[in-house]
UniProtKB/TrEMBL annotation:
<dbReference type="GO" id="GO:0005743">
    <property type="term" value="C:mitochondrial inner membrane"/>
</dbReference>
<keyword id="KW-1133">Transmembrane helix</keyword>
<comment type="pathway">
    <text>Porphyrin-containing compound metabolism; heme A biosynthesis; heme A from heme O: step 1/1.</text>
</comment>
<dbReference type="GO" id="GO:0016653">
    <property type="term" value="F:oxidoreductase activity, acting on NAD(P)H, heme protein as acceptor"/>
</dbReference>
<protein>
    <submittedName>
        <fullName>Cytochrome c oxidase assembly homolog 15 (yeast)</fullName>
    </submittedName>
</protein>
<keyword id="KW-0350">Heme biosynthesis</keyword>
<keyword id="KW-0472">Membrane</keyword>
<feature type="transmembrane region" description="Helical">
    <location>
        <begin position="69"/>
        <end position="89"/>
    </location>
</feature>
<feature type="transmembrane region" description="Helical">
    <location>
        <begin position="323"/>
        <end position="340"/>
    </location>
</feature>
<dbReference type="GO" id="GO:0120547">
    <property type="term" value="F:heme A synthase activity"/>
</dbReference>
<keyword id="KW-0408">Iron</keyword>
<feature type="transmembrane region" description="Helical">
    <location>
        <begin position="219"/>
        <end position="243"/>
    </location>
</feature>
<dbReference type="InterPro" id="IPR023754">
    <property type="entry name" value="HemeA_Synthase_type2"/>
</dbReference>
<feature type="transmembrane region" description="Helical">
    <location>
        <begin position="151"/>
        <end position="168"/>
    </location>
</feature>
<dbReference type="Pfam" id="PF02628">
    <property type="entry name" value="COX15-CtaA"/>
</dbReference>
<feature type="transmembrane region" description="Helical">
    <location>
        <begin position="382"/>
        <end position="400"/>
    </location>
</feature>
<feature type="transmembrane region" description="Helical">
    <location>
        <begin position="264"/>
        <end position="287"/>
    </location>
</feature>
Length: 407
C-alpha cells in the first residue's frame, strides 16, 4: 500500500470520528494532523534508508572464494599432468586394461584378485612383446602407478563438480560465469573419456608391427592438450577474480606489450603440446646430442616419410627437430618480451612476473638439453615436463597482470 493511500485512509477515519461527534472537524485540525503524519512517514523512510541492506551475491568476498577454488583446481590439474607424465615414462599406462568409473577405485586385495588382473594384462601386446618375463611383483608396481593416476583424475573431477554445485546454489556465480563453470566441469568429464580412448590405442593388436606397444601419439597429444586447456582456463579465471587492478594509462606501448605477451604465451603452449609427440614416439631417444643432431645441423632423415606432412607427426627425427626449434623460439620470444618490458613503467608485481618467466625459460632449456644428453632418465624427464607447466603458469601470470592494468 502506498503512502498516499495510507494518508487518505487515515483521513477518512478521522472524518468518520468527527461525523459521529467524537472530534470537532476543523480545517486547522486537519492541516496539522496531515503535517504530523507526513513528518512521521518521512522519518520512517529515513530510518529504513539507513538500515543496512542484505549483502548481495556475488560480491568481492565471494569472488575471492571462487578465485581461490579455481586456482586450487588448476593445481590439481598440474598434479594429474605430472603424474601422467611419470606414468608414461615408467611405461605403466597400459597395465590397467579395463575402465570402470566406480569399480576400479578399489585395487585388487587378495592374491587371487592380483593373479586374475595379471592374467588379463598378459592377453595384451605390451606383455607379449615387451614384458613377457615380468613377475607379479613387477606388475603390481606399474599397476599402482596407473591406478594412482586414474584416482587422481577422479579427485580432480570431484574438486570441480562438488564445490561448483555448492557455489551455484549459494548464488556465487554471475550469469557469464555460470557458462564458464559448466564448460569446465564438462571438460573434466571429457578429459576422463579421452584418457581411456588414448589407453585403448595401446591395447590394440597390430600384427604388422613388432615395435614396442605404445599409445597413439595423436591421442596422447589430444589428452595432454585438453588437460592444458583445462588448466589454463581454470587458472585464468581464478587469477582474474583474485588479482587487483593496476592504475596505469593505456598507452600504445602497453597495447603492444599485451599482444607480444599473448603471442609468447601461445608459443609456450604449442611447445608444451609438441612434447606430447616427442613422448608418444620416444623421439627423445634419437640424436642425443646438442646443438647438432648427430654430426649435422639438419639430419638426413628429417623428411624421410611420405607424404610430406606425415613427418611432422610420425617421424621421430622430425618431431624432435620441431621441438628443438619451438623451444629455441620460445626462449627467444620470452627474452624479447622481457627486454621490451624494461623500457616501460610497470607495477612491481608485473615486473616480478616477467623476471620469473625469463628465469624459468632458461632453466627449462637447460632441463631439456640435459634430458636429451643423458638419454631421458625418468627423474630428469619428469622434471622437464613439470618445467613446461611452470613456464606455462608464469606466462599465464604475466598475461593476467598485464590484462589487469586499468584502461
Amino acid at each position: 500500500m502506498s503512502t498516499m493511500s495510507v494518508l487518505l485512509r487515515a483521513l477518512s477515519l478521522r472524518c468518520q470520528q468527527c461525523a459521529v461527534g467524537r472530534l470537532p472537524l476543523q480545517r486547522s485540525t486537519v492541516r496539522s494532523w496531515l503535517v504530523n503524519r507526513r513528518r512521521s512517514t518521512l522519518t520512517a523512510e529515513a530510518v529504513r534508508a539507513q538500515t543496512p541492506q542484505a549483502v548481495t551475491v556475488p560480491n568481492a568476498a565471494t569472488n575471492r572464494i571462487v578465485g581461490k577454488w579455481l586456482v586450487g583446481c588448476s593445481g590439481l590439474v598440474v598434479g594429474a599432468v605430472v603424474l601422467g607424465g611419470v606414468t608414461r615414462l615408467t611405461e605403466s599406462g597400459l597395465s590397467m586394461v579395463d575402465w570402470h568409473l566406480i569399480k576400479e577405485m578399489k585395487p585388487p586385495q587378495t592374491e587371487a584378485e592380483w593373479e586374475a588382473e595379471f592374467q588379463k594384462y598378459q592377453q595384451y601386446p605390451e606383455f607379449k612383446i615387451l614384458n613377457h618375463d615380468m613377475t607379479l611383483q613387477e606388475f603390481k608396481a606399474i599397476f599402482y602407478m596407473e591406478w594412482g593416476h586414474r584416482m587422481w583424475g577422479r579427485l580432480v573431477g570431484l574438486a570441480y563438480i562438488l564445490p561448483a554445485v555448492y557455489f551455484w546454489r549459494k548464488g556465487y556465480f554471475t550469469r557469464p560465469m555460470k557458462g564458464c563453470i559448466l564448460g569446465l566441469c564438462g571438460f573434466v568429464f571429457f578429459q576422463g573419456l579421452l584418457g581411456w580412448y588414448m589407453v585403448k590405442s595401446g591395447l590394440e593388436e597390430k600384427p604388422e608391427s613388432y615395435d614396442v606397444p605404445r599409445v597413439s601419439q595423436y591421442r596422447l597429444a589430444a589428452h595432454l592438450g585438453s588437460a592444458l586447456v583445462l588448466y589454463c582456463a581454470s587458472l585464468w579465471m581464478g587469477l582474474s577474480l583474485l588479482l587487483p587492478t593496476h592504475k596505469l594509462p593505456d598507452t600504445r606501448q602497453l597495447t603492444l606489450l599485451r599482444r607480444f605477451a599473448r603471442g609468447t604465451g601461445g608459443l609456450v603452449f604449442l611447445t608444451a603440446l609438441s612434447g606430447a609427440f616427442v613422448a608418444g614416439l620416444d623421439a627423445g631417444l634419437v640424436y642425443n646430442s646438442f646443438p647438432k643432431m648427430g654430426e649435422r645441423w639438419v639430419p638426413d632423415d628429417l623428411l624421410a616419410f611420405s607424404p610430406f606432412l606425415k613427418n611432422f607427426f610420425e617421424n621421430p627425427t622430425t618431431v624432435q627437430f620441431d621441438h628443438r626449434i619451438l623451444g629455441i623460439c620460445t626462449v627467444t620470444a620470452i627474452t624479447g618480451l622481457y627486454l621490451f618490458s624494461r623500457r616501460m613503467v610497470l607495477p612491481r608485481r608485473s615486473k616480478i612476473a616477467l623476471s620469473c618467466l625469463l628465469a624459468m625459460a632458461y632453466a627449462q632449456v637447460g632441463l631439456g638439453i640435459s634430458t636429451l644428453l643423458f638419454y631421458v632418465p625418468t627423474p630428469l624427464a619428469a622434471t622437464h615436463q613439470s618445467g613446461s607447466l611452470a613456464l606455462l603458469t608464469l606466462a599465464m601470470w604475466v598475461l593476467a597482470e598485464l590484462r589487469r592494468v586499468a584502461k
